[in-house]
Amino acid sequence: MSPPITLIKKKIIDELANYFKTDKHLLLKANSQSMASYINQSFIITLICFLLSLFILLLCATYQPLTQLKQIGIKKLLGHSHLSILSDYVLSNCLLIFITSVIFDLLCLMLLEVIPQYFFMSLIWGQLALIFFYLLTGLIVYFIIQQVTISKLLKGF
Q1: What is the total count of domains within the chain?
Q2: Which segments cross the bilayer (predicted)?
Q3: Does residue 108 share a domain with residue 54?
Q4: Which domain holds residue 28?
Q5: Alpha-carbon torsion 17, 20, 23, 26, what sign?
Q6: DSSP per residue, 32-92
Q7: Can you tell me the distance from the alpha carbon of 62 to that of 145, in angstroms, rounded to the nearest whole number?
Q8: Binning pLDDT at 50, 70 and 90, where does residue 94 land?
């Protein structure tokens, strides 16, 4: 005797074959496949754009202090500490990143009709990672500021 599940399965297949006017064997044969992947073309493009953005952020964060070494030397000569000089460069840009992030989040909220699950969570984590990376580049700037001395500036660094 067949279990009741097999009888129900056969009955459903017969009804579907009658409804679609096709053979039962064609219904049971797989004629298409699908595949899910974590690494695909859009992920790679997004990753390249993200890494390029981080590289540009690194260049921008270190370029400004490098072009203003004479002003840094004058500030050190006037007695400013390394941290106060660093805060002049880092805090204003962190504030700019934060304000831009809030504006971007609000624009996403207003312009997107359908917001995917965890979209804002991923936005906030990405923005926090951006600020963290910028603060890490601030450490590079801090080490540059520590290396600047009046004697090195007079020699041409």
Answers
A1: 2
A2: 43-66, 86-112, 118-145
A3: yes
A4: 1-34
A5: negative
A6: ------SS-HHHHHHHHHHHHHHHHHHHHHHHHHHHTHHHHHHHHHTT--HHHHHHHHHHH
A7: 11
A8: confident
Q: Each residue of 140-149: pLDDT tens digit?
A: 878 877 887 7
From residue 148, give the alpha-carbon distance in Å to each of 58, 89, 97: 20, 15, 27
Q: Amino acid identity of 22?
A: T
**Residues whose CB is less than 8 angstroms from the CB of residue 41 and which lie 6 or more positions away in sequence, other chains included:** none
pLDDT (0 to 100) of residue 120? 84
Burial (0-12, 13-18, 19+ Cβ within 10 Å), 54: middle
Residues sharing a CB contact under 8 Å with residue 141, sequence separation 6 or more, in sequence order: 61, 62, 65, 86, 89, 90
**pLDDT exceeds cutoff 80 at 67:** yes
Which carries the bigger pLDDT value, residue 134 or residue 65?
134
Judge if 144 and 112 occupy the same domain. yes
> Are residues 79 and 30 part of one domain?
no
How far apart CA 70 and CA 90 sit, in angstroms, is 18
Q: CB count, 10 Å around CB of 75?
A: 18
pTM above 0.70, yes or no: no
